[in-house]
Design a protein that fits this description.
Strand order of the largest sheet: 1-2
Number of domains: 1
Number of helices: 10
Distance between the termini: 43 Å
Strand content: under 5%
Length: 275
Protein backbone atom coordinates (compact mmCIF):
# COMPACT_ATOMS: atom_id res chain seq x y z
CA UNK A 1 0.00 0.00 0.00
CA UNK A 2 2.79 2.45 0.90
CA UNK A 3 4.55 1.80 -2.41
CA UNK A 4 1.31 2.43 -4.30
CA UNK A 5 0.70 5.66 -2.38
CA UNK A 6 4.22 6.90 -3.09
CA UNK A 7 4.01 6.07 -6.80
CA UNK A 8 0.62 7.75 -7.14
CA UNK A 9 1.85 10.84 -5.28
CA UNK A 10 4.95 11.04 -7.49
CA UNK A 11 2.87 10.88 -10.68
CA UNK A 12 0.44 13.49 -9.38
CA UNK A 13 3.22 15.84 -8.31
CA UNK A 14 5.04 15.51 -11.63
CA UNK A 15 1.86 16.21 -13.58
CA UNK A 16 0.91 19.12 -11.33
CA UNK A 17 4.33 20.81 -11.49
CA UNK A 18 4.55 20.33 -15.25
CA UNK A 19 1.13 21.90 -15.78
CA UNK A 20 1.90 24.68 -13.31
CA UNK A 21 5.07 25.85 -15.04
CA UNK A 22 4.45 24.90 -18.67
CA UNK A 23 0.81 25.61 -19.44
CA UNK A 24 -0.35 29.05 -20.58
CA UNK A 25 -2.96 30.85 -18.50
CA UNK A 26 -5.95 29.39 -20.35
CA UNK A 27 -4.37 25.95 -20.27
CA UNK A 28 -3.92 26.21 -16.50
CA UNK A 29 -7.54 27.28 -16.09
CA UNK A 30 -8.62 24.26 -18.17
CA UNK A 31 -6.38 22.00 -16.06
CA UNK A 32 -8.00 23.29 -12.87
CA UNK A 33 -11.46 22.97 -14.43
CA UNK A 34 -10.89 19.26 -15.12
CA UNK A 35 -9.94 18.56 -11.51
CA UNK A 36 -12.78 20.73 -10.25
CA UNK A 37 -15.20 18.68 -12.34
CA UNK A 38 -13.80 15.41 -10.97
CA UNK A 39 -13.95 16.75 -7.41
CA UNK A 40 -17.55 17.87 -7.93
CA UNK A 41 -18.37 14.39 -9.26
CA UNK A 42 -17.05 12.89 -6.01
CA UNK A 43 -18.94 15.43 -3.91
CA UNK A 44 -22.12 14.56 -5.76
CA UNK A 45 -21.49 10.88 -5.00
CA UNK A 46 -21.17 11.72 -1.28
CA UNK A 47 -24.56 13.37 -1.60
CA UNK A 48 -25.95 10.13 -3.11
CA UNK A 49 -26.67 11.71 -6.50
CA UNK A 50 -27.18 9.39 -9.44
CA UNK A 51 -24.74 9.57 -12.36
CA UNK A 52 -26.89 12.04 -14.28
CA UNK A 53 -27.22 14.30 -11.27
CA UNK A 54 -23.50 14.19 -10.62
CA UNK A 55 -22.79 15.09 -14.24
CA UNK A 56 -25.12 18.08 -14.09
CA UNK A 57 -23.62 19.20 -10.79
CA UNK A 58 -20.07 18.90 -12.10
CA UNK A 59 -20.88 20.87 -15.25
CA UNK A 60 -22.61 23.54 -13.16
CA UNK A 61 -19.62 24.04 -10.85
CA UNK A 62 -17.19 24.10 -13.77
CA UNK A 63 -19.43 26.75 -15.34
CA UNK A 64 -19.22 28.85 -12.17
CA UNK A 65 -15.46 28.42 -12.16
CA UNK A 66 -14.87 29.57 -15.74
CA UNK A 67 -17.37 32.44 -15.49
CA UNK A 68 -14.82 35.03 -14.25
CA UNK A 69 -12.67 34.33 -17.30
CA UNK A 70 -15.66 34.74 -19.60
CA UNK A 71 -16.63 38.01 -17.93
CA UNK A 72 -12.98 39.13 -17.77
CA UNK A 73 -13.35 40.38 -14.19
CA UNK A 74 -9.58 40.32 -13.81
CA UNK A 75 -9.43 43.44 -15.99
CA UNK A 76 -11.08 45.46 -13.24
CA UNK A 77 -9.97 43.88 -9.96
CA UNK A 78 -6.65 42.25 -10.72
CA UNK A 79 -7.95 38.84 -9.69
CA UNK A 80 -9.39 35.92 -11.61
CA UNK A 81 -12.31 35.73 -9.18
CA UNK A 82 -13.90 38.69 -7.37
CA UNK A 83 -12.61 39.30 -3.85
CA UNK A 84 -16.02 38.61 -2.30
CA UNK A 85 -15.76 34.98 -3.41
CA UNK A 86 -12.72 34.53 -1.19
CA UNK A 87 -14.27 36.41 1.70
CA UNK A 88 -17.35 34.17 1.57
CA UNK A 89 -15.19 31.04 1.46
CA UNK A 90 -12.93 32.32 4.24
CA UNK A 91 -15.91 33.12 6.48
CA UNK A 92 -17.31 29.66 5.78
CA UNK A 93 -14.10 27.94 6.88
CA UNK A 94 -13.28 30.16 9.84
CA UNK A 95 -16.76 30.61 11.32
CA UNK A 96 -19.33 28.13 10.02
CA UNK A 97 -17.30 24.95 9.69
CA UNK A 98 -15.90 24.98 13.26
CA UNK A 99 -19.47 25.41 14.51
CA UNK A 100 -20.61 22.60 12.22
CA UNK A 101 -17.84 20.30 13.45
CA UNK A 102 -18.58 21.18 17.07
CA UNK A 103 -22.27 20.54 16.53
CA UNK A 104 -21.62 17.19 14.81
CA UNK A 105 -25.24 16.76 13.88
CA UNK A 106 -26.32 15.07 10.68
CA UNK A 107 -27.57 17.53 8.05
CA UNK A 108 -29.87 15.85 5.58
CA UNK A 109 -30.68 18.78 3.32
CA UNK A 110 -29.17 17.68 0.01
CA UNK A 111 -29.65 21.09 -1.60
CA UNK A 112 -27.80 22.73 1.29
CA UNK A 113 -24.92 20.25 1.05
CA UNK A 114 -24.67 20.72 -2.71
CA UNK A 115 -24.45 24.49 -2.14
CA UNK A 116 -21.74 23.81 0.43
CA UNK A 117 -19.88 21.85 -2.22
CA UNK A 118 -19.84 24.93 -4.43
CA UNK A 119 -18.43 27.05 -1.59
CA UNK A 120 -15.80 24.40 -0.85
CA UNK A 121 -14.61 23.77 -4.39
CA UNK A 122 -15.07 26.77 -6.69
CA UNK A 123 -13.17 29.39 -4.62
CA UNK A 124 -10.32 26.94 -4.00
CA UNK A 125 -9.70 26.28 -7.68
CA UNK A 126 -10.11 29.98 -8.49
CA UNK A 127 -7.45 30.63 -5.84
CA UNK A 128 -5.10 28.27 -7.68
CA UNK A 129 -5.46 30.50 -10.74
CA UNK A 130 -4.93 33.72 -8.78
CA UNK A 131 -1.93 32.49 -6.78
CA UNK A 132 -0.30 31.14 -9.93
CA UNK A 133 -0.83 34.50 -11.62
CA UNK A 134 1.45 36.05 -8.99
CA UNK A 135 4.09 33.35 -9.46
CA UNK A 136 3.92 29.55 -9.84
CA UNK A 137 6.42 29.18 -7.01
CA UNK A 138 4.04 30.99 -4.67
CA UNK A 139 1.31 28.44 -5.29
CA UNK A 140 3.72 25.57 -4.61
CA UNK A 141 5.00 27.29 -1.45
CA UNK A 142 1.45 27.82 -0.17
CA UNK A 143 0.50 24.20 -0.88
CA UNK A 144 3.76 23.21 0.80
CA UNK A 145 2.24 24.43 4.04
CA UNK A 146 -0.38 21.68 3.80
CA UNK A 147 2.15 19.05 2.73
CA UNK A 148 4.45 19.89 5.65
CA UNK A 149 1.54 20.00 8.08
CA UNK A 150 0.02 16.68 6.96
CA UNK A 151 3.35 14.86 6.97
CA UNK A 152 4.38 16.13 10.39
CA UNK A 153 0.94 15.42 11.87
CA UNK A 154 1.09 11.85 10.56
CA UNK A 155 4.51 11.02 12.01
CA UNK A 156 4.03 12.93 15.28
CA UNK A 157 0.64 11.32 15.76
CA UNK A 158 1.95 7.83 15.11
CA UNK A 159 4.86 8.19 17.49
CA UNK A 160 3.48 10.43 20.22
CA UNK A 161 -0.28 10.43 19.76
CA UNK A 162 -2.30 9.81 22.91
CA UNK A 163 -5.13 12.32 23.10
CA UNK A 164 -7.72 12.10 20.34
CA UNK A 165 -8.55 15.31 18.51
CA UNK A 166 -12.03 14.39 17.29
CA UNK A 167 -12.62 10.68 17.93
CA UNK A 168 -16.19 10.66 16.65
CA UNK A 169 -15.15 12.26 13.34
CA UNK A 170 -11.60 11.08 12.62
CA UNK A 171 -10.30 8.64 15.27
CA UNK A 172 -6.74 8.64 13.91
CA UNK A 173 -6.06 12.34 14.54
CA UNK A 174 -4.49 13.44 17.83
CA UNK A 175 -3.59 16.65 19.59
CA UNK A 176 0.04 15.55 19.54
CA UNK A 177 -0.22 15.34 15.75
CA UNK A 178 -1.58 18.89 15.68
CA UNK A 179 1.33 20.09 17.82
CA UNK A 180 3.83 18.35 15.56
CA UNK A 181 2.20 19.85 12.48
CA UNK A 182 2.30 23.40 13.86
CA UNK A 183 5.92 23.01 14.96
CA UNK A 184 6.90 21.83 11.47
CA UNK A 185 4.97 24.65 9.80
CA UNK A 186 6.69 27.11 12.13
CA UNK A 187 10.08 25.85 10.94
CA UNK A 188 8.83 26.02 7.35
CA UNK A 189 7.79 29.65 7.88
CA UNK A 190 11.22 30.51 9.27
CA UNK A 191 12.87 28.92 6.22
CA UNK A 192 10.49 30.82 3.92
CA UNK A 193 11.34 34.13 5.58
CA UNK A 194 15.04 33.34 5.47
CA UNK A 195 15.05 32.50 1.78
CA UNK A 196 13.02 35.60 1.06
CA UNK A 197 15.26 37.95 3.00
CA UNK A 198 16.27 41.06 1.04
CA UNK A 199 19.33 40.41 -1.09
CA UNK A 200 19.27 36.64 -0.54
CA UNK A 201 18.20 35.76 -4.07
CA UNK A 202 16.89 37.77 -7.00
CA UNK A 203 14.93 34.74 -8.24
CA UNK A 204 12.65 34.72 -5.19
CA UNK A 205 9.28 36.25 -6.20
CA UNK A 206 8.61 39.65 -4.68
CA UNK A 207 5.34 38.45 -3.14
CA UNK A 208 7.28 35.82 -1.20
CA UNK A 209 9.84 38.22 0.29
CA UNK A 210 8.17 38.74 3.64
CA UNK A 211 9.17 39.27 7.23
CA UNK A 212 9.03 36.32 9.62
CA UNK A 213 6.72 38.33 11.89
CA UNK A 214 4.17 38.27 9.06
CA UNK A 215 4.68 34.89 7.41
CA UNK A 216 4.80 32.91 10.67
CA UNK A 217 1.25 33.71 11.85
CA UNK A 218 -0.06 33.51 8.27
CA UNK A 219 1.27 30.00 7.64
CA UNK A 220 0.26 28.79 11.09
CA UNK A 221 -3.23 30.12 10.47
CA UNK A 222 -3.40 28.45 7.07
CA UNK A 223 -2.25 25.18 8.62
CA UNK A 224 -5.02 25.35 11.22
CA UNK A 225 -7.62 26.06 8.54
CA UNK A 226 -6.25 23.12 6.56
CA UNK A 227 -6.82 20.86 9.58
CA UNK A 228 -10.37 22.17 9.82
CA UNK A 229 -10.87 21.29 6.14
CA UNK A 230 -9.53 17.79 6.76
CA UNK A 231 -11.93 17.25 9.67
CA UNK A 232 -14.84 18.66 7.70
CA UNK A 233 -14.36 16.24 4.83
CA UNK A 234 -14.09 13.39 7.34
CA UNK A 235 -17.41 14.53 8.81
CA UNK A 236 -19.05 14.59 5.38
CA UNK A 237 -17.68 11.12 4.53
CA UNK A 238 -18.84 9.74 7.88
CA UNK A 239 -22.31 11.10 7.20
CA UNK A 240 -22.24 9.46 3.76
CA UNK A 241 -21.06 6.19 5.30
CA UNK A 242 -17.87 5.87 3.23
CA UNK A 243 -14.17 5.70 4.05
CA UNK A 244 -12.89 7.42 0.89
CA UNK A 245 -14.44 9.99 -1.41
CA UNK A 246 -13.61 7.87 -4.48
CA UNK A 247 -11.24 5.38 -6.04
CA UNK A 248 -9.56 7.46 -8.73
CA UNK A 249 -6.17 7.66 -6.99
CA UNK A 250 -4.67 4.24 -6.16
CA UNK A 251 -3.56 4.08 -2.54
CA UNK A 252 -5.11 7.45 -1.73
CA UNK A 253 -8.81 7.12 -2.47
CA UNK A 254 -10.44 10.03 -4.28
CA UNK A 255 -9.38 13.52 -5.24
CA UNK A 256 -11.26 15.03 -2.31
CA UNK A 257 -9.23 12.84 0.03
CA UNK A 258 -6.06 14.54 -1.25
CA UNK A 259 -7.26 18.14 -1.41
CA UNK A 260 -9.45 18.35 1.71
CA UNK A 261 -6.98 20.59 3.57
CA UNK A 262 -5.94 22.58 0.51
CA UNK A 263 -9.45 23.64 -0.51
CA UNK A 264 -9.94 25.19 2.93
CA UNK A 265 -6.77 27.24 3.06
CA UNK A 266 -6.34 28.36 -0.56
CA UNK A 267 -9.03 31.11 -0.56
CA UNK A 268 -7.51 32.56 2.60
CA UNK A 269 -4.05 32.40 1.04
CA UNK A 270 -5.29 34.64 -1.78
CA UNK A 271 -6.50 37.20 0.75
CA UNK A 272 -3.14 37.04 2.52
CA UNK A 273 -0.87 37.35 -0.52
CA UNK A 274 -2.89 39.39 -3.04
CA UNK A 275 -2.64 42.62 -1.12
Amino acid sequence: MLKTRVMTAAVLLAGFVSALFLLPQNGWIAFCAVFLGLSAWEWGALMALAAVGRSIYSIFLVGLFVLPGILETSVTNGRYAPAWVYYVAGSFWIVLVPLWIGWRQRIDGRALLLAVGAIVLVPAFAAMVDLRSIHPSLLIAVLGTVWVSDTAAYFAGRRLGRRKLAPSISPGKTWEGVAGALAAVGIYALAWAGLGAPGHTSAWPAAMRVAVTWILPVLLGLAVVGMIGDLFESLIKRQAGVKDSGTLLPGHGGILDRIDASVAMLPLAVLAFMR
